[in-house]
Write a structure and sequence with these properties.
The protein has 190 residues and is mainly beta. The protein has no helices and 15 strands.
Length: 190
């Protein structure tokens, strides 16, 4: 979402199961401010990883990019509900919250970044890794809900930008239509 100044974003999702037999790789689900056209991102979310030996890992994290991510050790499992929010007071102080009500935990981080542009609000799927677009593990589908920017329905705030992942002209994921405060996304190809 671009076109305004953003001081808050929220997004919820149910953690999808991974099918690591199809492809390996890591995928991240997160919400945050900035990053679309700015060099900073204030974000919090979850990596879903096809690790060695067929092990599946879910790793929650917080990041004030360009600083490194901070991973935390709370348990996350497929089927858990995740809730996330990033808010700022506009003077460089940020509160980033990720919760897993299914497991009964909440992590709250207060960080400072005075150079934040506050030019976009994002709820996103991201391929993570060192390649341009690394393999995306088969997550089936995911539905984001309670997606808001500045306390309003995402569909009513700014200009919508999509983030379908693609490699060499082949779609890897496809976003569904935004309906007020919810949208889905589907894994298509390794």
């Amino acid at each position: 979402m671009t076109g305004d100044t953003y001081d808050a974003v929220t997004g919820n999702w149910v953690v999808p199961s991974l099918d690591c037999a199809v492809t390996k790789g890591d995928v991240s689900f997160w919400s945050g401010l900035d990053g679309w056209t700015s060099s900073t991102v204030e974000q919090i979310g979850l990596d879903a990883v096809c690790a060695s030996g067929g092990k599946i890992e879910y790793n929650p994290w917080v990041e004030m990019y360009p600083a490194d991510s901070i991973y935390f050790t709370e348990t996350v499992k497929a089927g858990d509900t995740m809730t996330s929010s990033v808010t700022t007071n506009g003077s460089g102080s940020f509160t980033l919250v990720l919760a897993d009500p299914t497991q009964g935990w909440t992590k709250t981080y207060t960080k400072t970044l005075t150079s934040a542009a506050l030019s976009s609000a994002e709820v996103i799927i991201e391929a993570i890794g060192s390649q341009a677009i690394p393999p995306v593990p088969d997550f089936g589908s995911i539905k984001f809900s309670d997606v808001t920017a500045n306390g309003e329905d995402f569909a009513d705030e700014g200009t919508l930008q999509t983030t379908n992942l693609e490699r060499n002209g082949t779609l890897l994921t496809e976003d569904g239509a935004l309906d007020g405060t919810s949208f889905g996304a589907t894994w298509l190809h390794k």
